[in-house]
Design a protein that fits this description.
By secondary structure, the chain is an alpha/beta fold. The chain folds into three domains: 13-158, Alpha-D-Glucose-1,6-Bisphosphate, Chain A, domain 3, CATH 3.40.120.10; 175-368, 3-Layer(aba) Sandwich (Alpha-D-Glucose-1,6-Bisphosphate, Chain A, domain 3), CATH 3.40.120; 374-461, TATA-Binding Protein. Helix content is 35%, strand content 21%. It has helices at residues 31-45, 63-75, 89-97, 131-142, 159-169, 191-197, 227-236, 263-275, 292-299, 311-321, 345-358, 363-368, 386-396, 439-461, and strands at 21-24, 53-57, 81-86, 104-107, 116-123, 126-127, 153-155, 177-181, 201-205, 240-244, 251-254, 260-261, 282-286, 303-307, 325-327, 333-335, 374-375, 379-382, 403-405, 410-414, 417-423, 429-436. Strands 1, 2, 3, 4, 5, 6 and 7 form a seven-stranded mixed β-sheet that branches. Strands 17, 18, 19, 20, 21 and 22 form a six-stranded antiparallel β-sheet that branches. It has a five-stranded mixed β-sheet with strand order 9-8-10-11-12, with helices on both faces. A hairpin with an 8-residue loop joins strand 4 (104-107) and strand 5. The longest helix is centred in the last third of the chain and has 23 residues, at 439-461. The two termini are 33 Å apart. The model is unreliable at 1-7 (pLDDT under 50).
Length: 462
């Protein structure tokens, strides 16, 4: 843990993650060290940034104070800052896309529990991750934090501009009845208005913004967090249920029958629609997605690109290959046809409603067109050193009857399904997921993976 000699403030290394900065507010992430992070960012990129740096925060109770500290740090090196207030992360990306600098800092811990907070960053409208985040830590460690004249601070709202942009792009041709669960996250103040703007009938569930998240955690990828939404969709006879995460950049859906429509299946719907007028374009998706997604992209006239998990990594790959669409099993969806290509759960919700509203099929019939499989949600297992565990798994696993993919952990593709094990880049965990054509196939593949894991654990205990 480096000690800044001027301030005597220690900044823990473990808050600097692969995709963002994240820690416990008031403990590993304090007013003092988040100010240093802002100062380090400004020092590292002051010569590259042309225009104002945009800063915003989510609705967590700790966010306003941390945002203020971050702004102070950025301004201390002479950079001008526009405070966008309390908004979902996609609105910061939207504002950055339409700004001179393309640069924004978002105080948020996404779907994590209330005591956590953090920072997501974008520079020149490109994802900011990996070595770029490490350089901020290194600057603080070396006390390489020059200051300058204090930059200007102004305030601006982007909400109305964003709403206008979405409603100009999307209008529902037939009524769509929606139950919307924002998990008391920051999107609750905006997403219902956006959906009504485009012509949806919206039934709100937990859309009151409350940084304590009193009803359920703000992670829609956990089935237990979707139970109230499922019940409401059935009771209200809705066309679709929409679950948006704590900072508004992820989406999971529920069918009229109360079935969870996981993001890899939503990607099939979106890919079919987008590729119908963009033949030959590439679609990027992560290693956790079901096998049928690649086949459906190919059949729709696109080029499937399997890539590493992580919103920054998917976005970077999309930029590299000029992909028209991308997505992750975690619910990040990236539209690069009529939208600027960043992950946006609110816009994705509007696009889904647009498809439902213009189809001659009912919502139930539309979701029935999606291929499905027998699969598990993400299985997370605590591990002190997940990356080392994955390397050991790779060296011990012998799946002769499978195609082995190692771009992110190890994915074994069998004739009837796949198994995946990878290291989380945001927590001390290994993550597994299994997908197969049948329950028997799923059980067989899962047993193969658990046998290797059990062998490694036995070796550690000897």
């Amino acid at each position: 843990m480096p000690l800044n000699s001027d301030t005597g403030i220690s900044v823990p290394a473990d808050i600097f993650k692969t995709y963002d900065i994240r820690g416990v507010a008031g403990e590993s992430l304090t007013h003092s060290n988040i100010r240093l992070i802002g100062q380090a960012f400004g020092s590292e990129y002051a010569d590259e940034i042309e225009g104002d740096v945009l800063v915003a925060c989510d609705a967590r109770l700790s966010s306003p104070e941390l945002k203020s500290a971050l702004i102070d740090g950025v301004r201390s090196v002479g950079l001008d800052v526009i405070d966008l207030g309390t908004i979902p992360t996609p609105l910061l990306y939207f504002a950055a896309h339409n700004s001179a600098s393309g640069t924004g800092l978002m105080v948020t811990a996404s779907h994590n529990p209330p005591r956590f907070n953090g920072i997501k960053l974008t520079l020149a409208n490109k994802p900011f991750y990996g070595d770029a985040i490490k350089r901020l830590y290194q600057r603080i460690s070396k006390n390489d934090l020059p200051t300058g004249s204090l930059g200007r601070l102004s305030e601006q709202s982007v909400v109305d501009i964003y709403r206008q942009a979405v409603s100009s792009d999307i209008q529902i041709s037939a009524p769509v009845r929606v139950v919307l669960d924002c998990a008391n996250g920051v999107a609750g103040g905006i997403a219902p208005k956006v959906l009504r703007d485009i012509g949806c009938e919206v039934i709100e569930l937990y859309c009151e913004v409350d940084g304590r998240f009193p009803n359920h955690s703000a992670d829609p990828t956990r089935p237990e967090n979707l139970q109230d939404l499922i019940a409401a969709v059935i009771a209200e006879k809705a066309d679709v249920g929409l679950a948006i995460d704590g900072d508004g950049d992820r989406l999971v859906a529920v069918s009229p029958l109360g079935e969870i429509v996981w993001p890899d299946r939503l990607m099939i719907l979106f890919a079919r629609d987008i590729l119908s007028v963009n033949l030959g374009r590439q679609v990027v998706f992560d290693v956790k997605c079901q096998r049928s997604l690649a086949r459906e992209i190919d059949q729709a006239g696109g080029k499937p690109i399997l890539w590493k998990t992580g919103h920054s990594l998917i976005r970077a790959k999309m930029l590299e290959c000029d992909a028209i669409f991308g997505g992750e099993m975690s619910g990040h969806l990236y539209f690069n046809d009529r939208w600027p290509g960043f992950d946006d759960g609110i816009y994705a919700s509007a696009r889904l409603c647009e498809m439902l509203g213009r189809s001659e099929l009912s919502a139930t019939e539309i979701f029935r067109t999606l291929p499905d499989s027998v699969n598990t949600p993400e299985i997370r297992i605590h591990c002190h050193d997940p990356h080392t565990m994955i390397e050991r798994f790779r060296s011990h696993a012998k799946f002769e009857d499978a195609e082995i993919i190692t771009i992110d952990g190890l994915r074994a593709d069998f004739n009837d399904g796949f198994g995946l094990i990878r290291a989380s880049n945001t927590a001390p965990e290994i993550v597994l997921r299994f997908d197969a054509d049948s329950e028997a196939g799923l059980a067989r593949i899962r047993e193969k993976f658990y046998y290797v894991l059990g062998t490694l654990i036995d070796m550690d205990e000897e």
